[in-house]
Amino acid sequence: MVIKRKRGWEMPEHLATSEALFLNRRVLIGGAAGLAAGSLLGGRAALAAAGDQTLYPAAQNPAYTLDRAITPERFSADYNNFYEFGTSKTVLPAANALKTHPWTLKIDGLVEKPFEIGVDDLIRKVGLEERLYRHRCVEAWSMAVPWTGFPLSKLVALAKPASGAKYIRFETFMDKAMAPGQRAFFYPWPYTEGLTLAEAGNDLAFVVTGVYGKPLPNQFGAPIRIAVPWKYGFKSAKSIVKVSFTADRPKTFWEGLQASEYGFWANVNPAVPHPRWSQATERVLGTDQRVPTLIYNGYGEQVAGLYKGLEGERLFL
């Protein structure tokens, strides 16, 4: 007898939207999105940067569903942290300057052989799927997102890390002419983030190239970013140009800027407040709701074991 255990983020089957209804909804949304492209997706700039649109929408992986409604795109697409283009949430107009094609990803460090690969070539090599994930910002707001991409473990396998590699360091683009926020001398540009190889190998760690059934718009971190749903959003580096495998723990952007507030691990924990505000609840984007924050953002069953033996570390902020 096969016993299926529900994962922590899964909804009861009777509450799930049927596949036929979901696909019909996508057709309707797709038509409406074409009319709204000038606002939500950055107009012509976003369409020019979209890459191979024939790969979207990708098939949804039914193992990754949610207990809450997907955040409507009109809210999430116009509420973004992307400090390269400014410190406000409405970075969409400035992010139109981001030139995302062609875009090359460099793989280096402790790997069998360093290499570079175009993002479109990478996508064709590893394939795409859609997953529904929670996203929790350290600023205490949240959203539910239909990301398109592939497991980070596939990129790790492609890189063939050496036995001494323990961490992955992600680095975003650096172009002060294109990104006015990078002219701010007090930030430690370029943006860097990191994970352990064990974290990167977890099934939930995801490389994102699309959202809402379309290629990733600029303000979301086009053309390639990371989604680590059990951590605060700043751990999910955007517009990545380099992935390095290292023996030493990388110093990350926010850790370098304000280590007293932002550590390396940054796992979600409602019981550990940010030094300047509570993490006990979160505002659900696009609603007037505040809901209790869940440990590891609701993914504890899948990831808590990654941190056994690390109780002496500051795992949560």
From TrEMBL:
The record ties this protein, via Pfam families, to: Oxidored_molyb
Residue ranges annotated for the Oxidoreductase molybdopterin-binding domain, each copy included: 98-254
- Fetch the InterPro entries from UniProt: MsrP, OxRdtase_Mopterin-bd_dom, OxRdtase_Mopterin-bd_sf, TAT_signal
Q: Which cofactor does it need?
A: Mo-molybdopterin
Span-the-membrane segments of this chain are none
Changes after translation: Predicted to be exported by the Tat system. The position of the signal peptide cleavage has not been experimentally proven.
Q: How does it assemble?
A: Heterodimer of a catalytic subunit (MsrP) and a heme-binding subunit (MsrQ).
Question: Which PANTHER family does this UniProt record tie to the protein?
Answer: PROTEIN-METHIONINE-SULFOXIDE REDUCTASE, PROTEIN-METHIONINE-SULFOXIDE REDUCTASE CATALYTIC SUBUNIT MSRP
Annotated protein name in UniProt? Protein-methionine-sulfoxide reductase catalytic subunit MsrP
Q: Say which species the protein is native to.
A: Methylobacterium longum
